[in-house]
Design brief:
The structure holds two protein chains of two kinds.
Chain A (H helix, E strand, L loop, with lengths): L1 E13 L3 E8 L3 E7 L18 E7 L5 E10 L8 H17 L7 H16 L3 H15 L21 E4 L4 E3 L11 E3 L1 H11 L3 H4 L6 H19 L5 H7 L2
Parallel strand pairs in A: 3-5
Antiparallel strand pairs in A: 1-2, 1-4, 2-3, 4-5, 6-7, 6-8
Chain B lengths: L9 H10 L7 H13 L2 H16 L2 E2 L6 E2 L16 E5 L2 H10 L5 E4 L17 H10 L4 E4 L5 H14 L5 E4 L15 H9 L5
Parallel strand pairs in B: 3-4, 3-5, 5-6
Antiparallel strand pairs in B: 1-2
Helix pairs in contact in B: 1-2
The chains are: A alpha+beta, B alpha/beta.
Chain lengths: 245, 203
C-alpha cells in the first residue's frame, strides 16, 4: 500500500464497471492504475477520479497494475470545467503530458507545472497564453528547451532582426547560417522575446503579458511545429480546440 | 528436447479466438466458453449463432432517434403514447434501457452514439449531433433534456450541444446531479455535494 497525490489524465473503460486511470503523480511520474466499480453511481471513488481532478490516493500493489483503494479530491478545477473552451484547452494539456511522458519516470517539475497551469486556466484572461506557457515549460522540463539566445550553427549572439526557427534542430539560426536548414521558418524579434519570457517566468508573472493577435498566432505556429516534430504526429485534441474558436 | 505443441482442434481454436475478441473475455474464459458451447445441445448453440447473425442483419438505426431498432421508425418514435415535444439526449442505446426502466419518462430520445473525447480524436462530427439539429428544426420540440453522463466528457458534450441549441429558443435542461439512493454522505465528493446543495428541494 502507498499514498500519493495525483492528477487524472485519462480514463479508459475496463470490464463491467471498472476504469484504467492514467495519473500524473509528484513522485512516480505517470502511472496507470485500476479503479474498481467507478462507473457505478454508488462508487465511493468515482467523483474523486473524474478527468483533470487532483486527488489524494491510496493504492495497493496489484499483479500488473496497482489498484486505487481510496480517493479524496483536493482540487476539482471547477471554474475551468464550466466553460467548454477552457475544457478543450485542459484536454489538450492532459494529452500533451500523456504523449510526452513515459510511465514511472519521476519528474516533479512537470507535476507542479500541470497543477499550476490548470489553476491558471481557471481564471486566465487568455487561454492561449496559458497554453503557450505550458508547452514551452513542458518541453523545457523534458529536455527539449529550444535554443533562443545564440545561433545553433555559428554560436554567435542573435542580432535583433528576423532570424530563423528550425524545429528539427530545436532552436534559432541566424540569417547567415540559415542556408543549411531548408525547413527553418522565419521568426520575428517579438516572437523570440515572447518565447524567452514565457520560458523564464511563472504563471503569475507570465499572466501580465499582452500579445497582438498576429504575434500570438506566430508564436503558436512555431511551437506547434516544434511539438509536431518531436511527437512525430498531430495532437488529437487540437482539432476540437480549433473547432471552438 | 521439447516436443511440438499441439493446439486444440482447428474449429475449437477458431471459436476460442473469436470469443476472445469480446470485451472482458480473456484467453482462459474464451477457452472455457468454447468448450461449454461444444457440450451444449445443438439447438441451443444454433440459437446463439442465429441470434448473433440476426443482430447484425436485422437491426438498423432509427432514422429519427438513432437508436438501434428492427423497424424504422423505432417502437418509441412511432408510439402514439409518447410525447414528441420532449427529446432526451443520451450517449448510447443502453442509457435508453436504464431510463425506460424507471417507467416515468414519456418523451422520446436521441442517441448520440458516443461523447466528445478530444484526446481520442472524437469530435462533434463523429456524434449524431447533426441529426439532432435536423430533428429540432423540422419538428415542434419544446424541451431537450441533456442526459449525458455526469463526468467531464459528458459535461463537455452537454455544454457543446447547449451552445448549439441556445439560439433556437427552446427549453434546455440537464439531468439533476446529486447523491445516489442508499449511499453514504461521507464518501461523496465536493462536486456532487455542491450540486446536491444547489439543487436541494422543499421537503
Amino acid at each position: 500500500m502507498y499514498k500519493t497525490e495525483a492528477i487524472v489524465l485519462k480514463r479508459i473503460n475496463l470490464g463491467e464497471a471498472d476504469n484504467i486511470i492514467t495519473l500524473y503523480t509528484p513522485n512516480f511520474g505517470k502511472i496507470r492504475a485500476v479503479a474498481k466499480g467507478v462507473r457505478r453511481p454508488k462508487s465511493k471513488l468515482g467523483g474523486h477520479l473524474d478527468l483533470l481532478t487532483q486527488s489524494a490516493l491510496l493504492l495497493a500493489q496489484g499483479q500488473n497494475l496497482d489498484i486505487i483503494t481510496q480517493a479524496q479530491s483536493i482540487e476539482s478545477f471547477l471554474t475551468l470545467k464550466s466553460d467548454i473552451k477552457r475544457i478543450s484547452c485542459a484536454f489538450y494539456i492532459a494529452e500533451l503530458v500523456d504523449q510526452f511522458t513515459a510511465e514511472h519516470v519521476e519528474n516533479y517539475p512537470i507535476y507542479r507545472l500541470l497543477h499550476e497551469n490548470l489553476l491558471w486556466l481557471c481564471e486566465a484572461r487568455s487561454c492561449e497564453l496559458v497554453l503557450r506557457h505550458f508547452e514551452l515549460q513542458l518541453l523545457s522540463h523534458l529536455g527539449y528547451q529550444p535554443e533562443l539566445h545564440q545561433c545553433l550553427s555559428c554560436k554567435s549572439q542573435l542580432a535583433p532582426e528576423r532570424n530563423l526557427f528550425s524545429a528539427s534542430s530545436g532552436g534559432v539560426l541566424c540569417s547567415a547560417c540559415a542556408g543549411n536548414e531548408p525547413t527553418a521558418r522565419s521568426i520575428s524579434v517579438d516572437a523570440l522575446k515572447v518565447m524567452r519570457f514565457l520560458l523564464s517566468n511563472d504563471p503569475t508573472s507570465a499572466n501580465r503579458l499582452q500579445m497582438s493577435r498576429e504575434l500570438s498566432q506566430e508564436v503558436e505556429q512555431l511551437i506547434r511545429e516544434y511539438v509536431r516534430y518531436l511527437l512525430e504526429r498531430e495532437v488529437k485534441s487540437l482539432e476540437f480546440m480549433n473547432h471552438l474558436r | 528436447m521439447r516436443i511440438g505443441f499441439i493446439p486444440a482442434a482447428a474449429p475449437i481454436s477458431r471459436l476460442i479466438e473469436e470469443l476472445g475478441k469480446l470485451p472482458g473475455i480473456g484467453p482462459k474464459s474464451a477457452a472455457r466458453l468454447a468448450y461449454y458451447l461444444l457440450r451444449t445441445p445443438e439447438a441451443e448453440a444454433k440459437a446463439l449463432a442465429e441470434a448473433i447473425i440476426a443482430v447484425k442483419d436485422k437491426t438498423v438505426l432509427c432514422s429519427s432517434c438513432q437508436n438501434v431498432t428492427d423497424s424504422d421508425p423505432c417502437a418509441i418514435c412511432s408510439s402514439e403514447e409518447r410525447y414528441h415535444g420532449i427529446i432526451c439526449v443520451v450517449k448510447e442505446p443502453l442509457d435508453i434501457l436504464a431510463l425506460e426502466r424507471t417507467g416515468r419518462y414519456t418523451g422520446v430520445y436521441h442517441v448520440l452514439h458516443g461523447v466528445l473525447s478530444p484526446m481520442d480524436g472524437i469530435g462533434p462530427e463523429d456524434l449524431k449531433i447533426k441529426e439532432l439539429l435536423a430533428r429540432i428544426e423540422t419538428g415542434s420540440v419544446e424541451e431537450v433534456i441533456l442526459a449525458t453522463n455526469p463526468n467531464l466528457e459528458g459535461e463537455a458534450t452537454a455544454m457543446y450541444i447547449q451552445k448549439l441549441l441556445s439560439p433556437l429558443g427552446l427549453r434546455i435542461t440537464r439531468l439533476a446531479r446529486g447523491l445516489p439512493v442508499g449511499s453514504d454522505l461521507e464518501y461523496a465528493d465536493e462536486v456532487t455535494l455542491t450540486h446536491a446543495l444547489e439543487g436541494r428541494q422543499a421537503f
